[in-house]
Amino acid sequence: MRPWVPLTAAAVAAVVAAAVAGGAGLLPGGGRSRASGTVLEATLGRCGTGWTRPRPGPQTLLVRNSGNAIAEVRLVDRAGAVHAELEGLGPGVTRPMRVTLGAGEYALRCSDDSAGDPRTGPLVRITGGGPGGPAVPAVSENDLADAVAAYWTKVTAGVGRLADLTGALRSAVASGDLGEARRAWPPAHLAYERLGAAYGTFGDFDTEINGRPEGLPGGVRDPGWTGFHRLEYGLWHGEGAAALGRVADRLDRDVRDLRADLPRQRLDPADLPLRAHEILEATLRFELTGEADQGSGTSLRTAAANVAGTRLVLDALRPVLRTRYPRLPEAYAWLDRVDALLRGRSALSDLSAAERRRLNGATGQALELLAPIAEIAAPRRTS
Amino acid sequence: MTDRRSFLRGALAAGVGGVAGASVAAGASAASGGGDDHRDAPPPLRGFHGAHQAGVEEAPLPRTTVVAFDVIAGNRRELTDLMRTITDRARALTAGGVPDGAGITGPPADSGVLGPSVPGGNLLVTVGVGASLFDHRFGLAARRPARLTAMPTFPNDALDPAWCHGDLSLQLSARDPDTVLHALRDIARHTRGAAQIRWRIDGFTSPPRPSGTPRNLLGFRDGTANPAPAELGRLVWTDDGGTFLVVRLIRMLVEFWDRIGIGEQERIIGRARDTGAPLDGDRESDRPDFAADPVGKIIPLTSHIRLANPRTPATAGSRILRRGFNYDRGVDAVGDLDMGLVFTCYQRDIPSQFEAVQHRLKDEPLVDYVRPFGGGYFFVLPGVRDAGDHLGRALLS
């Protein structure tokens, strides 16, 4: 682990302020400040100009947009790896970009909010110094297209299984055999949870199919509450078959609507890398706390289904990540640990306090390792 | 559930980004325009490396958190990795500096709670190990410090298991609460797969009111009769540079306490509330003369200070280094305030020091006004000598 570099916050702020006020001539020189005082241009026509005295080591470069369009800049090396980026750099704005640069050749790559290709500024050579900071080649929307297609194929197949199981659940409720309905509920619900529908994957369908009662004015009595958890609440709180029949019919209809709508839905490629950690973020928050459970005692089976949903995302992204994320095998290893801790478990109460700590810790560690994927694999304009 | 990120993307596409960027620059500009927050920098605290860990002999800082962790590491190697990681983080957090940037390879490495550059010399980190770490899991049974046990239940206790014990103790102290929380978030983030928080309590020390030793939430000065620095080698530090820590989480029933007369309060403690002086003296620093008051006419025989430290040759060796912190954590089921004392003390040997004191205090009148509900015993590991050393190295090698 590299020790932190001494640098006062005031130094960064002062450098930015001085640059905004009047340019490099006013900058405090030397001392403990590692801010270089260099101001790089972000406009397309002058991309990267101003980098006159490149030097190695940790430093704060300032990037100024003196044009009229919103700019986006990346600092890339000769191999194309991105060391830092600034998005949404407004006209007239100067912002700091913190980097650690080793020996090599670097350039600024600028684009604006027009459709045109990015421009690459003059190549700058740095000699000497220690190792540079972390950098990774950008992922383009094109790179992600195959991952998205592969993922969507599996999701589509999963929604088919979901529809079959939800149909069986609806039939069980309609037959009046609520014992059978309680047996049919978990497989159908888990089929949905395996899809990894975190943070809006299926838009409004997710709320209708898997919504929780919090946030509804009437809570568990709210007439607007629909879906698996509404049915779960009724099945495990002694509600009658007649009332639940309407809930099951509605759920079945919503799932069939989702299946029908799926070919028209388009997964934003930018969303897939986010799912790598978001699915399990929701698991930690709603399942490992027991918050989502409405009586079935299946929080841990849901958690296992969510891990499967996370693997779906990782497997699809693997070709993109293989060369970009050296800790991917570790992330898989921690998912394996989570799976092992969940195996054969259903309700949160099946676990002792010590077992819960192990599960929470393994999930947290997996999340720490999954979170970088959202940054690494975010689609970026490349050429 | 809504997509938490699409809004942001939408906003940038719509051109709001320029406005946001401008405000950042304006903020930075204002920061240098004389309205800067350069408080007079207090002198830096001791550094991380040393024969002993920080946070024991230094004067208590205004803010602290005491955290017990259970280790969930799978084996001895992972436990060693955990101790190395805690050491690395404690070293970096104590020294301060600019955290490494992640570029586009991940989320920011630091929470940013202390700004872009973490001030150095503002944090004391103290790490201990509990008896439970020496069970079958890591093959350490034979290495348990001989006198380290789990904290027993004392006669006046009302212990909640969820607030007791732990494989590791971590105390973080600083002048400001953001420094404490920044460090806790950092260490927890780097150790999630190897350790989980079992319990945690935040504490504070009050400023002198109006002078002398800080007061606890009973209104009395607490910690007056601590050993002198020169005595710590004999009373506190073990031969290898460690020390034994006792944590006791003690609820104070402050509403009840506030309903009893000042005379009774002072007889229960043995000191005057206003001055902190023993009841036979004038000043806080006066030494009580128990020999001159053999039947306790002035300082009752059952008073807290007299039982805790009878000041006889026979009890001189049982003295402890007390570090009390006040805690305040909300309201109980009958609407009374839940506040009290995070009692910590350090000693060479818990049975002959803390426990000897505790046995003398059994059934003291004060027990009606307090309720010990948690805590634990820990061995505070020897200090980290240099950049190549790590916490628990001798224990784990």
TrEMBL record, chain A:
Gene3D superfamilies: M75 peptidase, HXXE motif
Family matches, as InterPro entries: EfeM/EfeO_iron_uptake, Imelysin-like, Imelysin-like_EfeO/Algp7, Imelysin_sf
A Pfam family: Peptidase_M75
Locations listed in the record: Cell envelope
Domain Imelysin-like: 148-328
Keyword line: Lipoprotein, Signal
GO CC annotation, single: cell envelope
Similarity remark: Belongs to the EfeM/EfeO family.
Protein name: EfeM/EfeO family lipoprotein
